[in-house]
Design brief:
Bound molecules: flavin-adenine dinucleotide
Structural class: alpha/beta
Largest sheet: 5 strands, parallel
Number of strands: 5
Oligomer: single chain
Distance between the termini: 65 Å
CATH topology of the largest domain: DNA Cyclobutane Dipyrimidine Photolyase, subunit A, domain 3
Strand content: 5-15%
CATH architecture of the largest domain: Orthogonal Bundle
Helix content: 40-55%
CATH class of the largest domain: Mainly Alpha
CATH superfamily of the largest domain: DNA Cyclobutane Dipyrimidine Photolyase, subunit A, domain 3
Radius of gyration: 23 Å
Number of domains: 3
């Protein structure tokens, strides 16, 4: 029988259950990737992520050709037109079975449902798998049978249910007999409009695996101490590879556990903490699946729906260009514009500044991040923004507002990170660099602060307090 593997956010050979099953069950296998420019835009996906996608598809095609599997890109208008285009490809190529790994976004789930209906009409067998998570979203439940909305009990249940068999991912692929269909990746058009240095993000599975093993052998041990400092760069930087599925979370967990005697909660603190972060990713996928309102531009905490956000075009433009006059915030934004990636500590600092001091709607910040990140991931990005805005799960209490200057002195004490991204401030001392005074600024091309930290903090607390009062009334 002829089978199709529909690649989506799983652009790899390693630990790819859909590919593995297709190889085991079909005589001939074709790989497809379906692309919609409109959908990419509608999801605010970035130009830099698109470049990374194309580079990874080219390398995936090379790896698949060694298994005699061609890779074909199919262009479709939108998710609405996709099921029909998929079905006609499958029918015209006389495909008997299709394999894919599940995606959990609201639009993706609807697309898959429609695709199933259409394929079933054509008597095509559908085989679906999970590769992004250990447990299918919604599977783990609280004692009351409800979905988890707090991370710590979720993680506890995640570990309690874990079986080492889940990590049975080392296997050899069979090679198929050659098929008379040629690979074709010509359908995705790309015009570069970003200015990210792509040397930071070598494409392909081997690069991703090398990054993983370098992290585990060099940085993992000290991860719990160094992860918060942007200047130490102590994190793995594997998120762009996760975002397109170049690397699987199971592979990361397995390789991490191997170095820690298969322990989740004791032994090497760095590895335990790092695996925790991968569980955070799974937690936000659960939230996205179990609380569909978060995919519809709505807050997780429904009582924050009517919060009165401010809107200032001038402040927004200053923020988007990294010119707020708060060096740590601006360095974070400028890192994202230059690297397509921002350190986690800074994502929190920047998002908190935006939603609390500027008191701007988290949805604008969420969109801005998606449009610029190479690792843009709806579930984690939405979760992170809603956490910072105190509208989400496990959210920061609204009155606990990060002070960007304190964050700066704590996590970049000498201002090395700031100076890397704001060279205008190179001449300042490690004391001055966190908030240059007005007289110093006159000699630099760096803006003065767009707001007053103290009064903007009080303003935010007041607005949140009023919102809570109207809920309780
Ligand atoms: C406002 C905001 C927006 C964010 N947007 C995204 C996004 O679009 N895409 C994205 O992948 N992550 C996002 N994150 C989470 C986190 O910042 C990144 O995953 C992390 O910085 C990636 O760097 P790393 O691979 O070096 O992480 P490591 O520290 O090496 O962690 C390993 C992996 O664990 C996961 N992880 C780590 N921290 C988190 C977290 N807080 N939430 C969920 N998963 C986590 C990631 O998959 C990461 O690659 C966001 C966080 C905030 C506060």
């Amino acid at each position: 029988m002829k089978g199709v593997v529909w690649f989506r956010t799983d652009l790899r050979i390693d630990d790819n259950p859909a590919l593995r099953n297709a190889l085991d069950n079909c005589e001939e296998v074709i790989g497809i990737y379906i692309f919609s420019q409109l959908q990419w835009k509608a999801h605010n996906e970035s130009n830099v992520k698109l470049e990374f996608l194309i580079k990874n598809l080219i390398l995936l095609e090379k790896s698949l050709s060694k298994l005699n599997i061609p890779l074909i890109t199919i262009k479709t208008e939108s998710f609405d037109s996709l099921p029909k285009d998929l079905s006609s490809f499958v029918v015209s190529n006389k495909v008997g079975q299709i394999f894919w790994n599940n995606e959990f976004g609201a639009n993706e789930s609807k697309r898959d449902l429609l695709s199933c209906t259409m394929l079933e009409k054509e008597n095509v067998k559908i085989s679906r798998f999970d590769d992004q998570v250990i447990y299918e979203p919604g599977y783990l439940k609280t004692g009351q049978g409800k979905p988890f909305s707090v991370f710590t009990p979720f993680k506890r249940r995640w570990i309690e249910n874990f079986e080492m068999d889940f990590l049975d991912i080392n296997y050899k692929h069979s090679i198929k007999k050659p098929i008379n269909i040629k690979s074709d990746l010509s359908k995705i058009e790309f015009v570069r409009i970003h200015s990210v240095n792509m040397d930071l993000w070598p494409a392909g599975e081997s690069a991703a695996q090398e990054r993983l093993s370098n992290f585990l052998s060099i940085k993992a041990e000290s991860y719990s101490e160094s992860r918060n400092s942007p200047v130490l760069d102590g994190t793995s930087r594997i998120s762009p590879y996760f975002a397109l599925g170049i690397l699987s979370p199971r592979r990361c967990i397995l390789e991490g556990l191997k170095l820690n005697n298969y322990e989740f909660t004791s032994g090497n603190k760095g590895i335990c903490k790092w695996i925790d972060e991968i569980v955070w990713r799974e937690f936000y996928r659960n939230i996205m699946h179990c609380f569909p309102r978060v995919s519809k531009n709505r807050p997780f905490q429904t009582h924050t729906e009517n919060l009165e956000w401010r809107y200032s075009e001038k402040e927004l433009q200053a923020f988007y260009s990294g010119n707020t006059g708060f060096p740590i915030v601006d360095a974070g934004i400028r890192q994202m514009l230059a690297e397509g990636w921002m350190h986690n500590r800074l994502r929190m600092v920047v998002a908190m500044f935006f939603t609390k001091n500027m008191l701007h709607d988290w949805r604008l910040g969420e969109k801005f991040f998606m449009e610029n990140l190479i690792d843009g991931d709806f579930a984690s990005n939405n979760g992170g923004w809603q956490w910072s805005a105190s509208t989400g799960t496990d959210a920061a209490p609204y009155f606990r507002i990060f002070n960007p200057i304190t964050q700066s002195t704590n996590f970049d004490p000498e201002g090395k990170f700031i100076k890397q991204f704001i060279p205008e401030l190179n001449m300042l001392s490690s004391k001055e660099v966190h908030l240059p005074t007005t007289d110093l600024l006159t000699s630099f091309s760096y803006p003065s602060p767009i707001l007053d930290l103290k009064s903007s903090r009080l303003r935010a607390i007041e607005v949140f307090k009023e919102n809570n009062a109207s809920r309780d009334a």
